Amino acid sequence: MRMCGFDGLDSFLGKKAGRPATFETQCFLDEFSILLHSIWYDLRLYQVPMFSGFKLSDLTQGEKALLASYACAGAVGAWTSHIVAHRLLGRDAVLSNTLGIFEIWTLCAGAIGAILAIYLNRRWFGHLGFTGFKFTLVAVLNTTFVATLIGGTLALPIFGTMFGPLAITGTFWSSPPVLYLWLASLLGANYAYGLYRKERASVFLARLSSEEDPISRRL
């Protein structure tokens, strides 16, 4: 009976103890799967809120709007990153039926960059009035710049970091539909954060109105 275990790099490559590399690889995958299952069990056992009985129906309207806005921004960011990365490398940016590792990674990098950028600039979203309009402009500029830095760094380290902002500007100029989609996703995030802030404000006001005035209790 063969036992799973690693005797160094030579054993992993199948050059020692007469065991093929596929056996060691399968052992590693089995142990990694067991580790993931144990982590998932611990998260549910200790009732971590994100992993214990999470239901989409439990979310409020504002939270659902935020979730949808992040998903839309991630999708637009993924497609934009794919276009920009391929243009920097002088390639065709059309998605084919068979995606390679580079294509998949550029899509993931763009989605991560867009989502993180909105989250890092969330304090500028969802405000009302003329001040809210100014905050929205700041949010659009900051989020676009941060998303470009994060996505460019992940997709093409160093090269994407340096030329990402310039490349995204050229992409928006030469392909207006990409710009319109990106602005629409940011405006959607602004609307979602507006609903979210309104919900939180209503909860806070409801708590204040339900509490008895401390001065009236003295009378």
Structure, explained:
The chain crosses the membrane at residues 65-84, 104-121, 133-159, 179-196. Keywords: Membrane, Transmembrane, Transmembrane helix. There is one protein chain. The model is unreliable at 5-21 and 215-219 (pLDDT under 50). The relative contact order is 0.11. The protein starts with 8 loop residues before the first helix and ends with a helix. The chain folds into two domains: 1-54; 57-208, no CATH class. The longest helix has 35 residues, at 176-210. It has helices at 9-12, 21-45, 61-88, 101-120, 129-155, 159-174, 176-210, 214-218. The chain has 219 residues and is an all-alpha fold. It has eight helices and no strands.
What is this structure's SSE topology?
Elements: H1 9-12, H2 21-45, H3 61-88, H4 101-120, H5 129-155, H6 159-174, H7 176-210, H8 214-218
Helix pairs in contact: 3-4, 3-6, 3-7, 4-5, 5-6, 5-7, 6-7
List keywords for this structure.
disordered C terminus, 2 domains, mainly alpha, 219 residues, 8 helices
The class by helix and strand makeup works out as mainly alpha
Total DSSP helices: 8
N-to-C series of helices and strands = HHHHHHHH
Shape: flat
In a nutshell, what does this entry contain?
With 219 residues, the protein is mainly alpha-helical. It has helices spanning 9-12, 21-45, 61-88, 101-120, 129-155, 159-174, 176-210, 214-218.
